[in-house]
Amino acid sequence: MKMIYCRRFLLSFVLCFSITVTIASDYPKSIQKKIDKALKSAFDTDQVIMEELDISNFDSLNKENVVRNIKLSKLKSGKDIIGVAAFASSKGKFDYFDYLVLFDQDLQIRKIAVLIYRSTYGGEIMAKYWLKQFEGKKNGEGMVFEKDIDSISGATISGPSITKGIQKLSELMSELRKKGEI
């Protein structure tokens, strides 16, 4: 029994301090499966190529610092650009959690997947039915927690945190489009 807790602690420690949000190919296989599943669900194709985008003036667009470790990838199917993947982290009560937001060509949210949730509390935000509330939204509009987005029991801190993070990513996408970056 003691060995199980030791392993669980060690795994949590390793995940917490060694994994950062990067492009999909840098994730462990279990996380890569979540990414692949989200891509297939959102774009109905098995063949999606991710090209990391280099955004030089990124920090100036993320002034409030609501999200961190933001990485963007252009999504291609064949030669066609089908959308953008945004990898990011937001803070729960004690720990950061990593998630993926998939945007289509019109920058409308197609799918959200929580990739790594490190805390013992608030994991309810990983529920697919709750994350579906964001699908179809764009430009950061209609994403006010407890107004447009329902609260969820057990996620008092992480619920508003991911909502604000997704809203900021959506606004960021719009700003980057206006600047011609994506």
TrEMBL record:
A GO cellular component annotation here is: membrane
User: What sections of the sequence does the record tag as coiled-coil?
Assistant: none
Task: Give the record's keywords alphabetically.
Answer: Signal
Q: Name one GO molecular function term.
A: FMN binding
Q: Which SMART domains does this entry report, sorted A to Z?
A: FMN_bind (SM00900)
Q: Name one Pfam family in it.
A: FMN_bind
> Which range is the signal sequence, renumbered to this chain?
1-24
Q: Where is the FMN-binding domain?
A: 92-173
Protein name per the record: FMN-binding protein
State the species of origin: Ancylomarina longa
